[in-house]
Amino acid sequence: MDKLRYGLFLGSKQFVKKWKEKLYAEKDREKPQARRALKEEGIETAVERVFRSLGVQHPGSLLKPRRGESRPDRDLAIYVLCYLGVFTHQEIGRHFGVGYTSISGSLKRVEGYMSSDGDLKEKVSIILNDK
How far apart are CA 27 and CA 32, in angstroms? Predict the structure, then answer.
């Protein structure tokens, strides 16, 4: 049973790696297998990918909360993570050093950003469909 990976497949680590690559190319995240594999990969990896997709140069500084300071890239990363549907608000909040209720504020801010910036809305849509 040591070759059972993600509760779904028997196989080597190379097999799982190939399966994950196919999974990332797939657009439908509603499949339980896809959600489980992404969740097991971890929020740290997901956050890194989101920041990379957003073109953030120094993501480390965005992980720490700063009261009263506008940081759109941080809010966008939180928005993308929420809409991937893999992590809970509590998990995302814990990773960014805020309470889970603060996540709602980030979501509202991003919706405001996107309503006034069509290019940003398109960029977020591309990221969400590419994850």
Answer: 13
